[in-house]
Input
Amino acid sequence: MAEIQPVAPVKLIAAILWSQQSTLGQTLDLLTESFGAIDFQSADYPFDTTDYYQSEMGENLKRRIIAFNDLISPETIVKAKQITNTMEMTISGCPARTVNIDIGFIDHNKLVLASVKDAGQKIHLGQGIYADMICRYQAGQYHALPWAFPDFKDNRYRSELLAVRKIYLAQRKAHPHTIR
Output
């Protein structure tokens, strides 16, 4: 019988979707209050590959990828998704969201986002939260899986994901068992 091995810590990330700069500022404040310091922020990218959120959130949507300094245990993604769902409602103050926070993690070979929606590729983690692996690291690059969001499929975040991975690997090397 194989012996159970310790689980490696992962790097918490968020892909934030918004249209108003004030909404982004409030979101970043709440995220750092809940998850600690941010050690990576991407540029703001236009969210222009689909109009899926436009009726709810308005036009001229943007996406920013952020990563948090503290490494976490992967199963804490369930609680993180519950926290970010509450944040979305707190920030919006109405049934229609003004921000969408896709919380997830990066480890040495994948990007996983948490979801409250079931689908064939998603794994239920508990409490109505699913893990959705949307990118896989292979041959020096992140490759979006067929079900990934269109903006991840067009590789616009490839260099950002690689930068976050580099930070993560350096953290793991310096502190291999550090988990928040």
In short: The mean pLDDT is 93. The first strand starts at residue 10 and ends at 18. The radius of gyration is 16 Å.
